[in-house]
Write a structure and sequence with these properties.
- By secondary structure, the protein is α+β, with helices and mostly antiparallel strands.
- 43% of the residues lie in helices and 17% in strands.
- The protein has eight helices and four strands, in the order H-E-E-H-H-E-H-E-H-H-H-H.
- Strands 2-1-3-4 form a four-stranded mixed sheet.
- Helix 4 (77-86) links the parallel strand 3 and strand 4 (90-95).
- Helix 3 runs parallel beside helix 4.
- The radius of gyration is 18 Å and the shape is globular.
Length: 149
């Protein structure tokens, strides 16, 4: 955990966001990540996501079985989703989302928005071509040899 915190502190010193993360398997650090949102102009380049991407590349897999994730801060909704998709054994965090909010990184509005129907959200979601949209899922259901995840 101290390494994740150190990554976050160091990233701030380099002009980045105050977030760091690392993926560990069998006591070995597989990958690290820091917030690179402004450095890469990528709003998805959060520390947890970059660490997960690096670990998956290193382990040549899309699931982090037997791994643990250490995060300098409680993951935001996007990162929490990525953690669940990657399926590590568990994750740990040091600072809370309340601490992040106090520093200007408040994601409470995203949690609130997720409870609403898409058409009622601040950034509205509109359903289009629903029947045609199912075509990919129908093809998936017929697919032999698909990699389940």
């Amino acid at each position: 955990m101290r390494q994740a915190i150190a990554l976050a502190v160091d990233n701030v010193a380099k002009g980045g966001g105050p977030f760091g993360a690392l993926v560990v398997k069998a006591g070995q650090v597989i990958a690290t990540g820091v917030n690179q949102v402004t450095a890469t102009n990528d709003p998805t380049a959060h520390a947890e996501v970059t660490a997960i991407r690096g670990a998956c590349r290193e382990l040549n897999t899309f699931q982090l079985d037997g791994c643990e994730l250490y995060c300098s801060c409680e993951p935001c909704p996007m990162c929490l989703g990525a953690i669940y998709w990657a399926r590590p054994e568990r994750f740990y965090f040091a600072a809370t989302r309340q601490s992040a909010a106090a520093a200007g990184f408040d994601d409470a509005f995203i949690y609130d928005e997720m409870k609403l129907f898409p058409e009622r959200r601040a950034i509205r979601g509109v359903l289009l071509l629903a029947e045609e949209g199912r075509a990919a899922f129908e093809e998936w259901e017929r697919c032999v040899g698909k990699a389940l995840y």
